[in-house]
Amino acid sequence: MTIDWSQQRILVFAPHPDDETLGCGGLMHRAKAAGAEVYVQFLTVGDTADNSAKGFSTADERYAEIKEVADHFRWDGWHIAFPGDEYHLKLDALPRFELSNAIERHSPLSIAELRPTVVIAPHRTSYNQDHQVTAEAMHTALRPSNTRLRHHPRLVLAYEEAADQWRYEAAPSPNLLVELDEEDLEAKLAAMRLYGTQIHEHPHTRSEQTLRSLAVLRGMQTGVALAEGFYAMRLLA
């Protein structure tokens, strides 16, 4: 199967800044280099407790990192739907109706507004509550219906992150693998370095070694050097 990335308008849903890079940084770089449009809808960001020397990163620091990463990947646009500590790491407290509507139509980068050909979001088996509810809200927003009345992206994917397997009901291996070259992977790693408050030394799920190791594993599984793994939820040829 071959996807002509040059013809795609890609919308990535990221619960927090860095999820889009962890899950599909290589694909974004490959698609953008081919001529695709790439947009990122972040769901929330706020002050974050972390393992840095000071013990937290501020929302202002996170915003500054997003801007650097956006320039690095040359995104065509990005937006944060629910900014602030009221929502950050608390998306599961939002009514599903409100979250789904933001994804479907009540955001500048909603599915109805942008009409993407490809939608990519987290997988529901993540241990993180914000990831779980983002995935479920995306499922609702992209429910099957009359394509003459609502926009249906032809390709809907869920991305994986290294820690997603930390669940009893962990998903099986990805069923769609996107080949990367070294330049794509290096762009992904460089973007994670720009997320200076979020990247960690190995062993950690957000270390460079983890990201490279996962790309090597997924590549091996399909007979190439490097790849990113996805779960195809809709594939309309």
UniProtKB/TrEMBL annotation:
Keywords: Zinc. The lineage of its organism: Bacteria, Bacillati, Actinomycetota, Actinomycetes, Streptosporangiales. It comes from the Bacteria. This is LmbE family N-acetylglucosaminyl deacetylase. PANTHER family: N-ACETYLGLUCOSAMINYL-PHOSPHATIDYLINOSITOL DE-N-ACETYLASE, N-ACETYLGLUCOSAMINYL-PHOSPHATIDYLINOSITOL DE-N-ACETYLASE-RELATED. The keyword Nucleotidyltransferase does not apply. GO terms for biological process: glycoside metabolic process. GO terms for molecular function: hydrolase activity, acting on carbon-nitrogen (but not peptide) bonds, in linear amides. It comes from Nocardiopsis composta. SUPFAM superfamilies: LmbE-like. The keyword Zinc applies.
